[in-house]
Design goal:
about 20% strand; about 260 residues; 12 strands; alpha/beta
């Protein structure tokens, strides 16, 4: 199953960028998703000239996975502004490195546990929450301008209703799109798939890995997912695909599985 625009995540085992790029090229993959949770991919560590030289040397390109702690709606304005500045500065790096995709999670925020229920504060103060999302959307539109950059919102552990509203607000802008992590979706019983498929015209990026029960990030062909279904979806929507296993062995197994099937 040949995939165009197929990439790999940054791995703990390849902590040096050139090691990662060398592996990417050896496996016949097209790009690396730089993970900004890692210290070596913080903004102050990205030397544009060096990163370009590595990409040119190995014939690859980059996408970016924004920090999973990112919370642009935090009620503490100092915290929220720091995260928004992080995104704005990352967009500037993306322009310089010709990066087309920034992958982003939507924070659920803090919750209060009451005797009979759990209250998510973004839901309780939804008007304020959605206003922050609207302001973030405007900031990103301004920062990206006419550049071909998409900020793709990734599913993780099940969307809350207020998150769905927020994503639909973001999708009103051409600079936002969706990432479908098929393993995360499987691990929660498939509850995010309907929402994503209802917006599949905005699907731009897929994190592809096998899964079994709640266990994620397995090599393709070693779990219980209908992988072919999601590969066909990627082809239909012309998505970039990250083979999101967490080890070199898992990545190699996934590439081998794709080559054989």
């Amino acid at each position: 199953m040949k995939l165009h625009n197929c990439g790999m995540p940054t791995l703990i085992e390849t902590s040096i960028l050139e090691e990662c790029a060398k592996l990417c090229a050896e496996l016949g993959l097209n790009y690396i998703e730089l993970n900004m949770n890692l210290p070596q991919y913080q903004l102050d560590k990205i030397d544009v000239k060096f990163f370009k030289s590595i990409a040119d040397k190995y014939g690859i390109y980059y996408t970016i996975h924004l920090d999973e702690n990112l919370n642009i709606s935090d009620f503490n304005t100092y915290v929220a502004e720091a995260y928004k500045k992080t995104v704005a500065d990352t967009i500037e790096i993306a322009k310089q490195l010709d990066i087309k995709v920034l992958n982003m999670h939507m924070a659920k925020g803090v919750y209060f546990t009451l005797p009979d229920r759990k209250v998510l504060l973004f839901s309780e103060y939804k008007e304020q929450y959605l206003k922050s999302v609207f302001d973030f959307r405007n900031m990103c539109e301004s920062a990206i301008g006419e550049n071909d950059i998409k900020i793709c919102i990734e599913n993780s552990d099940g969307y809350e209703e207020f998150q769905k509203e927020a994503i639909e607000l973001l999708l009103e802008s051409k600079v936002f799109a969706l990432t479908f992590d098929v393993g995360h979706n499987h691990g929660i019983g498939g509850t995010d798939e309907e929402f994503i498929m209802n917006h599949k015209d905005r699907l731009h990026h897929i994190h592809l890995h096998d899964a079994k029960g709640r266990k994620n990030h397995l090599a393709l062909g070693t779990g219980e997912l209908n992988v072919e279904k999601y590969i066909n979806l990627a082809k239909e929507q012309n998505c970039r695909v990250v083979l999101e296993t967490k080890t070199i062995d898992g990545l190699k197994q996934s590439v081998e599985w794709l080559n054989k099937n």
